[in-house]
Amino acid sequence: MPTWYHAAQLLIRKRFSAGTQFDFNYTFSKSEDWASVVERNGLFAGSVLNSWNPWLRKDVSDYDVTHNLNFNGIAELPFGKGRKFGSGMPGWANAVIGGWQLSGIWRWTSGLPTSIGNGFQFPTNWEFTGNATAISAIPGVQTTKGPDGPNIFKDPAAAFAAFSTTRPGGTGGRNIIRGDGYFSIDTGLSKSWTMPYNEKHSLQFRWEVFNLTNTARFDVNQSSGNMDNAGTFGRYSGTLTQPRVMQFGLRYEF
């Protein structure tokens, strides 16, 4: 399958100095293809619905992400001996307050694409149903909390009315809906103590938190978007992110 990828990338980096370092990168990109997996990958994966005109399938890839931002950094907290605050504190106080280090990773992406299924209709290919066709502007494409759970659409009924089953010869609209993107903040707080009986021995404590804000982002690949399922149209059933998790660790080094 042919693929096309174009991107612009920005990287800002601060090497470690004065107790801090960080990387910030941003990618603006577009990925297109006929199918995002090879046709031999599975019975219902990557199939060309109209072999006479495979270009009908060209659209953004299943994994296309227009905007992708990442940040990671490390900062030594300015408390304790040799630091900006409390440089003259006694050893016992430094053992409690000094020497802490904060680290973190932040990631945000724009929404992932998906298609609306054609239902149990086979307009072009005897084996594969293809996608539905948009017959008007699709209203309210935004993740919304509804009475039956989260939904891709603000008004699922109005969104359903914007689609029709595809006519013979067509393949429908591929990846014309954008759902949630990914968002997560992971952080870590750590400190090391040098053992008083041997400078080559140390004890390290770490407290790590994954998905610090406990933010939910929903997975468009786990949603109900099908012309046979008007009652559950656009409803999400899974997430891209995991719930917040914390872990603590002690490590003795020698």
Number of domains: 1
Low-confidence segments, given as residue ranges, are none
* Number of DSSP helical runs: 2
What is the number of strand segments? Answer: 16
Shape designation = elongated
- Content of β-strand: 35-45%
Question: What structural class results from the helix and strand content?
Answer: mainly beta
Instruction: Specify the biggest β-sheet.
Output: 8 strands, antiparallel
Oligomer: single chain
Note down, in words, how this protein is organized.
The chain is mainly beta and 254 residues long. It has one domain (3-118, 171-219, 240-253). Helix content is 5%, strand content 41%. The protein contains two helices and 16 strands. Strands 1, 2, 3, 4, 5, 12, 13 and 16 form an eight-stranded antiparallel sheet that branches. The longest helix has 7 residues, at 91-97.
Provide tags for this entry.
single chain; 254 residues; mainly beta; two-stranded antiparallel ribbon; 16 strands; 41% strand
How would you summarize what this structure contains?
With 254 residues, the protein is mainly β. The chain has helices at residues 91-97, 156-161; strands spanning 3-17, 20-33, 59-60, 67-76, 100-109, 113-114, 133-134, 141-146, 149-153, 163-164, 177-178, 183-194, 202-210, 223-224, 235-236, 245-253.
